[in-house]
Amino acid sequence: MKIFVTGVGGQLGHDVMNELSKRGYEGVGSDLAPAYSGIQDGSAVTKMPYVSMDITDRASVDAVLTEAQPDAVVHCAAWTAVDMAEDDDKVEKVRLVNAAGTENIALACKKLDCKMIYLSTDYVFDGMGTEPWQPDCRDYRPLNVYGQTKLEGELAVSGNLTKYFIVRIAWVFGVNGKNFIKTMLNLGKTHDRITVVNDQIGTPTYTFDLARLLVDMLETDRYGYYHATNEGGYISWYDFTVEIFRQAAALGHTEYAPDRVAVVPVTTAEYGASRASRPFNSRLDRSKLTENGFTPLPAWQDALDRYLREIL
Q1: What is the mean pLDDT of the segment spanning 273-277?
Q2: Which CATH architecture fits 2-178+203-231+282-298?
């Protein structure tokens, strides 16, 4: 099976390429950069073919994918800077990447009759209530430009294809790129007190674990909408930060011990408004995974342990 992966310069795309390599599949990586060297010596991404591709250029996307002739495309590329997306001069660029770019990929997949995985987000919902969002829920009410454009990407995929997986994820972290964990660890080195919101609830997603699931999906024809985050229960960003520091300290990094840095819970209102409104309820129901024969992701606590051992 030959798999084309967009956004290999990001957290998830990088891990998908490495997972493909582990299983002996042929992978072709793409991103905007003229070349990509990976982040580690021996990274599978450096050993597989790479092509520079601008997903917002429909003719280029068609030409590149037609030449590659993949059996499936895993579309990880996206505009993910949520607050910056709210800037008046960025909105159309965000839409061009997340909506039009995704449509360009979908149309090429339709032409080639190949499978497509599109990574989406809980931000397509309004985050109200406390019940976990179901993968087949169509009660869309995005709160910000990022969520709206990712929803438009979803609709471009479902409106053009039948052989697709739309996988919504949340609170993503991986080795290759910036994320909440790295931000907290950096703050913990320079601050003795950190305030973190405790009224936004969800579950983290480790890209290493998610990559395994996505390749599992490609090996089937059980298409449709899915939610995929790590198991282990729903938590707040405050809860997550406390556990990040606890585990880091247990690994010998005593600068994160409770007597060195205090983590203080605050409400979103107390923390202060950001440019983009964020959902309070990011709980995603993942039961459809097991119902369709897929192995759920491990508990987030275990994922965090493995991740910290990798980066610290």
Answers
A1: 85
A2: 3-Layer(aba) Sandwich (3.40)
Which positions are catalytic?
Answer: 146
H or E segment to which residue 215 belongs: helix 207-218
Token digits of residue 194: 């950190």
Does residue 6 sit in helix, strand or coil?
A: strand
Is this structure's pTM higher than 0.90? yes
Q: What is the token pair recorded at 223?
A: 């298409």
- Determine what percent of the chain is predicted with pLDDT higher than 90: 92
Query: How far is Cα 102 from Cα 81, in angstroms, rounded to an integer?
Result: 17
User: At 303, which amino acid appears?
Assistant: A
Q: Is the pLDDT of residue 42 over 60?
A: no
C-alpha span between 141 and 131 (Å, rounded): 15
Q: Are 85 and 42 in contact (CB under 8 A)?
A: no
In sign, the C-alpha dihedral spanning 149, 151, 155, 157 is positive
The three-state secondary structure class of 175 is coil
Q: pLDDT of 75-104, one tens digit each?
A: 999 999 999 999 989 999 999 999 999 999
Name the residue ranges covered by the structural domains of the chain.
2-178+203-231+282-298
Q: How far apart are CA 18 and CA 31, in angstroms?
A: 16
Retrieve residue 100's tokens. Answer: 């039009």
